[in-house]
Structure formats: C-alpha cells, structure tokens
Specification:
Number of helices: 11
Radius of gyration: 22 Å
Oligomer: single chain
Order of helices and strands: HHEHEHEEEHEHEHEHEEHHH
Helix content: 40-55%
Number of strands: 10
Distance between the termini: 72 Å
Shape: globular
Strand order of the largest sheet: 2-1-3-10-4
Strand content: 15-25%
Largest sheet: 5 strands, mixed
Length: 314
Amino acid sequence: MKRLLGTVLLSVAMLCPGMAEAADFPSRPITIVAGFNAGGTSDMILRAMAPELEKELGQPILIVNKGGSGGSLAIGDVLTKKADGYTVCLVNSPALTFDLQLRKARYNMYDFTYIGSAGGGQEGFYSLPDRPWKDFESMIEYAKKENKELTFTSPSVFDTYVMKSIGNKEGLKFRKVPVKSGGEAATSVLGGHVDFAHGGGVQGTYVDAGKMIHLATTSTKPFVLYPDVKPLVSLGYPHTGFDNHYILFVLKDTPKDVVEILAAAVEKVTTSPRIQDVILKNAHMDPTILKREEILPKLQKDFEEAKALIEAAK
C-alpha cells in the first residue's frame, strides 16, 4: 500500500512540478528586486525587513537594487524569471498605475500576484524655511504677486503633472529641473538651486532639524508625523491625492501555496513593532500596511484617478 501511495505521489509530482516545488518552498535564497537605488527610504525599509524575513522563511534574502524608469527596470527583470516565488519585486504603486499611462509597457497590473505592502508614502512638496512663503498656499500667492516662474525638482514624473494641473488652474508656470534620486532633490533644495521639491520622505529628517519646511502633501490625508501639513486636494486641487504604497508582488502564475507562504511572512514582518518603527521614525513613511486582497482594488482606483490628473495637466 505504501509503495502504491509513493508511486501515486511521484506521478503527481512529475505531472505537476509546481506542486512539488511548493511543498518544500523555500529551499534556496529568495531575491527581492527593488525598483529603487540603494540608500533611499524604501531601501532602508527593505534592508530592515530582510533579516526578519530570513527568520520567517528560513532562507537568505538577497536584495537587488534596480532603480530608474519609475520601477520598470525592476519589473522587467522579474518578468524574465520563473513564476516560482524565488523572485519578488518591490516598487512604488504608481509604477503599476500612473506610469503605465505615459508609455507602452509589456506588462500591466494584472500580470502579478500581490503578496503585501511595506508602508505608504508621505509624499509632498517642501522647501527651505527662509523662502518668502510658509506653506503651499502662500507660495502660490507669492508666485502670482511676483508673476514669477518657480522651479521645482524630483526624480519622479508624477509631480510634473500635479504642478502642470495646478499651473493650469492658477494661471502660473512652474519649471521642472530633473534629478535622479530623492537625495539629489534634497541637495538641490538645500543648495538653493530650485525653489521647492517633491519627495516621499527624504525631507523628513531635514524638517525635523529645522532645515526645511513641508508645504503640502500629495496624499489624501495629512502626514502621520506632521498632521498640520495639508493635502493638495483639501486646497481645491482635484486629482492630486494619491496614497502611494510600496508594493511586493510575484508573477501571476506563482503556485498558490507559495504565494500564501510569502504573504504570511511579509504581513508578519511588516506589522511587527520593529519594522513599524523603521517605517515611521527612520524612513518618515506611513506605517499603514495594506492586506494583499486590498492591493489590486487600490491599484484599479489609482489608475482611474491618474487618468483624470493627466487629462487636467494638458
């Protein structure tokens, strides 16, 4: 009887190799391909998560940074791998919503299975405190009064459309100065090379030190650590509120059992007190963690809102 059962299981494994792989998952290191350069806020969170994930999964976690092109380089790399759960991708949610409306891509949000999130962006505009304004509203008033074209910077494309839509509404022009990273954007502000910048958390340390001020947030709600910072949507600028999150996913054909193992580990780690502290206090990010079933509906909603923003910026 045992010999017969063994023969049956062997036959099933031969016919369904994915089932056999899922049974002993993980049996080797797991690689997380991050759509960010090393040293940023997302990298800080991910590197804090890695040893905790290793404890949960019993295998080394290898981090590969592939920053640039809004996360598309990282996603493109993951698309070349097997759908076996040994390659996980981490990008900011606009890479699967906003950015895909600006260029042709060989993937969309439905090509992946989502396993969790790693904190939300505290994204917004910031400047030096000695500028002739104290917040976004007074900056707009200043630009109108002086009839001045203000300059801003960031490594993303999103804020370009936000400022274009605001310029259209207010009858103003803003000039974008491109940079490659959030750190470079902060340096540009500190050096007085631009009037203001958009960032996802890098400015928090400087704000705490009194070297910068927050102007407004592009989230739908005030910052967790800075509740007085107003959302742009509350100032009368529609389609400018996005609660962006760092999203972790695998290819859609990854075995269900493998997905469950990864999702359980990610949720346990990201909701732990230590990682919550890293997200909030070290990275100055929103520690809200999305459940994996919440991610796709959120991406669908953001996709439609991004479409409206792009239209408003024409």
